[in-house]
Amino acid sequence: MPREPWQRKWGDIVADDLEVMMRYVEGEGPSPEFVATLRERIVAETASPENAADDERVFEINVQPPPPDHVTTTRRQWILVAVATIIVIVGFLALSRGSNDRRLDTVNPPEEQTTSTVTTSPAVPATFATDAPLLTEEFGHLEPGNYRVDTLGTPFTFTLDQPQALQDNHRAHFVLSHPGSQGSSDRDITFMRLSALSNPAEPTASLEASGEGWPADDFAGWLDTLTDEIVVSNRESTTFGGLKAIRADLQLGETDCRGGEGSCVLFGTNNLFNVKSLSAGSTTAPLPSRFRIWVVEQDDQDPLAVIVGINRESDQDWFDTADTILSTLAFGDIGPNPILDLPAGRVELPFVGGVRTELSGGSFAMLDPQGFGKIVLGDWEVHSGFLSNPLDSTGNVLETPDDLVAALEQGNETVTEVESIVIDGINARVFDVASASTERTLMLTRDDGKGWHSPARGRIWVIDHPDRGLLMLTAEAFENVDMIFPLVLAQTEAIIESLEFIELG
Fold first, then answer.
1. pLDDT at residue 107, as a whole number
2. Residue 255 · residue 263 · CB < 8 Å
C-alpha cells in the first residue's frame, strides 16, 4: 500500500524496522545470516565520510518513486534501494504462505470457570448512519468524515476526525491503521468475525495442534484459562457500538514472532480463512506488544472481534486515538458471518435460491454482504460467483440474457458468446468477458452501493430459470489472469457439472 513520506533515523531503519517488517510475513522467512548480511551491505553502501560520525542525523525517506530532479545524492538512491529491497523480500514471503488443515479437534472448556469481570455503565452509543458513504476499496487513505462498512456481515458506521490508513476491506476482515503503520499490530484496528478462539492454555500452538479451538462466544472463559505468559488487565463487561461485549487488555512478553522463527500468539480465526496472531515487539530491542480487544455479541451468529494493537511502548497514544474512533462506531442489523463453515465435498449453499454442488478442498464459500454468493479459490483474487436477477448500472431490470449482454457491453466490456451448455436440465448461454474498467457494471438492488464489477477476465453462464428469473454463474479473475484464470475456470466448470437447483428449508 502506498505510504506517506515518513522520517526515521537510518540506524533505526536498519536495526529495527527491517526486523519488524520481516516478522509480519507468514511462512518461511530468510535466515538470520541473510538478514544480517543485508543489513551490513546497506549500511556499508550508504556510509560516507562526512556523516560517518553523525549517528543522530535524520533523513526523510519517501517510498514513492521521486521525480528525477529530487534524486540528488548517492545516499538517497541507496536508501530507496534498501526500502525497495525490503519490500521485495516481504512481497516474496507473503506469496509463499502455506495452507492449513480446516478440520481440527476440539478444545473443551473446563466444566467450572471463575470470572473477575467488572460491569460498567455503558455510554450512550452512537447512531448507525444509514447515509454514510460505503467503503468499497482497500489499501488507501481515508480523510476525516463518516464511513460505512458492510464487509463483516453486520454493517457498522464510524467517524474519523483525522486522516487514517485503510488496509484490508474484504472477506469478513477490515483493518484501519495509523498512516505510518508498517505492518500488523503496528498501530492498527482490526475487525473480524470469529468462528473460534485459540487454545488459551497453549496459544502459541500451530493451527493443526489447536483443534477447532475454544468456542468463539466464550471470551470470558478464554481469558480465565489464558496462560500466565500473557498479562490480562482492564477486563470488563461493557457495550460496544450498542451491543454487549467483553473487553480486555493483553500484554505479551518478549516473544520472537518472525516468520520461520519463534512462535506467534494465536488469538482466533474465522474458519481458518482469516487468522489473527498477536505479534511481539522488535527483535533487536524487544518491547512488550499490547492489545486492547473487544469480543462483541452478535445474537446467535458468530461474534465480532475488534483488536487494537501496538508493538512499541512509545505508541501508547494510539489507544487514545483508537478509543476516539471506536466511540463513534454504531452497528446496523446483525447479519451472519460471510464465511460459511462448510467442509470440502457435497454441500448445500444458499446461493441463487438454493443449490447443491461439490466444494473442493482449499476453497471457501462466502455470502457476500451485497447479496450474492462466492466460492473463493484459496488466497487468490479469483472466485466462482452466483448472482440472481441483476440490474444494469442505473438500476433498470434485466429480463432476458440479451438484456444482460447489452448491459455488459454498455459497461465497455468485451463480450464473446461461446457454445451453450445445459445446467441441471436448463439451457445456459455462455460468454467470455474481459474489462479494464473499474466502474460497476451491474447492481444487485437499486440501493446497492457497491454493485458487481466486471473481472479483468471471466466467463459467465446465463440461465433464464423458469422459477427464479435471470441467474448468472461466473468465473472471475482480477489479477495475474494468464496464470490463475485457468484455475478458477476449472473450479467453476467442476461446480457447474455437479450443480443442482434445490429448495432449502
1. 55
2. yes
Average of per-residue pLDDT across 129-133: 92
Strands (DSSP E) found in 243-310 = 243-251, 265-270, 274-278, 290-296, 304-310
Which of the 8 DSSP states describes residue 15? I
Which residue's entry shows cell 497453549?
A: 202
Determine the pLDDT at residue 53.
Answer: 41
Q: Across the strands, what pairs with 475?
A: 384, 459
The pLDDT score that the predictor gives to residue 79 is: 34
Burial class (CB in 10 A: 0-12, 13-18, 19+), 414: middle
Q: Is 231 left (phi over 0), alpha (psi -120 to 50) or beta?
A: beta
Taking all residues of the chain, what is their mean pLDDT, rounded to a whole number?
A: 77
Residue 389 near residue 465 (C-beta atoms within 8 A): no
Using only C-alpha atoms, the chain has a radius of gyration, in whole angstroms, of 25
Q: In degrees to the nearest 10, what's the CA dihedral of 313, 314, 317, 322?
A: -60
380 and 488 Cβ atoms separated by less than 8 Å = yes
Q: Which helix (H) or strand (E) holds 345?
A: strand 345-349
Residue 381 CA to chain centroid, in angstroms? 12
* pTM confidence score: 0.72
- Give the DSSP per-residue string, 76-108: HHHHHHHHHHHHHHHHHHHTT-----S--PBPP
pLDDT, position 212: 73
Please state, in angstroms and rounded to a whole number, the distance separating the CA atoms of residues 360 and 498. 12
Give, in order, the Cα–Cα distances in Å from 166 to each of 3, 135, 326.
Answer: 11, 9, 15
Amino acid at 270: N
* CA nearest neighbour of 198 among 297, 266, 122: 266
Beta strands 290-296 and 243-251 are antiparallel
C-alpha–C-alpha distance, residues 311 and 317, integer Å: 12
Residue 96 and residue 203 in contact, taking contact as beta carbons nearer than 8 Å: no
Average the pLDDT over each of 23-32, 53-62, 449-458 and give the range with the smallest value: 53-62
C-alpha to C-alpha distance for 295 and 301, rounded to whole angstroms: 13
CA-nearest of 131, 121, 328, 322 to 236 is 121
Residue 55's pLDDT band (cuts 50, 70, 90): very low
Q: 262 — phi, psi (to 5°)? A: 65, -165
The whole-angstrom separation of Cα 478 and Cα 37 is: 37
Cα–chain center distance at 501: 31
Q: Which of 112, 102, 267 is nearest to 199 (CA)?
A: 267
DSSP β-bridge partners for residue 15: none
User: To which H or E segment does residue 426 belong?
Assistant: strand 426-434
Q: What is the 3-state secondary structure (H, E, C) of 134-146?
A: ECCCCCEEECCEE
| DSSP 3-state of 401 | helix
